Amino acid sequence: MHTRILRFAPSPNGHLHLGHAYSALLNQDMTRELGGRFLLRIEDIDAARCRPEYEAAIYEDLHWLGITWEAEVRRQSGHFDDYQAALNKLETAGLIYPSFESRSEIAALVDTRDRQGGWPRDPDGVPLYPGNARKLSWAERERRRRAGDPFALRLAMDAASARAGALTWTESGTGPQGQSGLVAAAPQMWGDVVLGRKDVPSSYHLAVVVDDALQGVTDVVRGQDLFWSTGIHRLLQTLLGLPEPAYHHHKLILDAGGRKLSKATQATSLRELRAGGATAVDIRRMVGLGR
Ligand code: GLU
C-alpha cells in the first residue's frame, strides 16, 4: 500500500476562521490515522485578492493551532508553467476556447436568455455562460487575441464530457444531500467553466487538479461547499490523464444564524478568538473535534 498524502490548501485572501481550523485539524487527524504525509499548499493565483500578510497569518494561525506540515510548501503563484502545460494539452485536444465578453456583457446575455424562458444556474447560483463565443470563427478569435483583447479560456463542457464519458468519485464524507460512497460526477451543471485568462494561465479548478496530481495527493479532505466542484475535477483529471484521488467532504462550520462563515466576519477569525483568550484546545472543542 502506498503512503497516503493529504493536504490543506487555503487561499491567502483573508484571515482563517473556524471553518478553516476544522478543515486543517480534520486533515491532520486523518493523516495521523492513515499514517500518511501532510502538505500545505497556498492557493494564491488570484493576485488581486491574495496578500503576503494573509499568507504570513496562515502560517502563524496554523502553528498556533498545533498543525504541522512538511517543510516544502507549494505556492501556486510560482507554478504557472505547470498550469499552462495543462491548458496547452486541453487546447490541442480542441476542448477549450476563448470568450471575449466582459462581465456586464455576459450579464446582459443571461438576462436575454432569462426573459426568453429561464437560463440555468450552477450550484453556487451563478448563471451558466451562455456559450456565444463557442461559435466564433478561428479567424475572429485570432484577430481579437492579436488585438490584445482580454479573454477567458473556457472548457467546452459538452464536448469534454462526451470525450470523458460517465465519471464517478469515491466519497468517504458526505455531500449536501447526504451523498456518499460512489458518487456520479455531473460536471455539466457548471457549464463552460473558466480554466484560464489572458493574464493568468489558470483558474482554481485547473490549479487544484494539476497540483493534487503533481504533489501525489491521494486523499482530498475539504469542505462540503466544494462537493459539486469535484465533478469538474474528475473531468479534468480524466482529460489530462491524471490519477484519481479519494474524496472526503466535511461539514461546514456555520455561524449562529446558520450561515456559512466568511473571511470578512471578524467574530470567528482565529486571530480574533486568540486575542479574546481562546486556546487551541478551545478551538478544537468549538468545531466539534474535542476529546
Ligand atoms: N483553496 C480552496 C479554499 O480555500 C480549497 C481548495 C481545495 O481544498 O480543493 O476554499
List the helices and strands and how they pair.
Elements (H helix, E strand, L loop, with lengths): L4 E4 L9 H17 L2 E6 L9 H14 L8 E2 L4 H13 L3 E4 L3 H13 L22 H9 L5 E4 L1 H8 L3 E4 L9 E4 L9 E4 L6 H11 L4 E5 L5 H12 L5 E5 L19 H6 L4 H7 L5
Parallel strand pairs: 1-2, 2-3, 9-10
Antiparallel strand pairs: 4-5, 5-8, 6-7
The protein binds glutamic acid (GLU).
Rg estimate, integer Å: 20 Å
> What letter string, H or E per element, gives the SSE order?
EHEHEHEHHEHEEEHEHEHH
**What is the number of E strands?**
10
Structural class by secondary-structure content: alpha/beta
> Count the helices. How many?
10
Mean pLDDT: 95
Low-confidence stretches: none
Compounds present? glutamic acid
Helix content class? 25-40%
Q: Biggest sheet, strands in spatial order?
A: 1-2-3
Strand content: 5-15%
Distance between the termini: 30 Å
How does this structure look, described?
The chain is an alpha/beta fold and 291 residues long. The chain has a domain of 116 residues: Rossmann fold (3-Layer(aba) Sandwich), CATH 3.40.50.620. Helices cover 38% and strands 14% of the residues. It is built from ten helices and ten strands. Strand 1, helix 1 and strand 2 form a beta-alpha-beta unit. Helix 7 crosses helix 8. The longest helix has 17 residues. The chain is globular, with a radius of gyration of 20 Å. Bound molecules: glutamic acid. The site of glutamic acid has 7 residues, from loops. Glutamic acid binds next to loops.
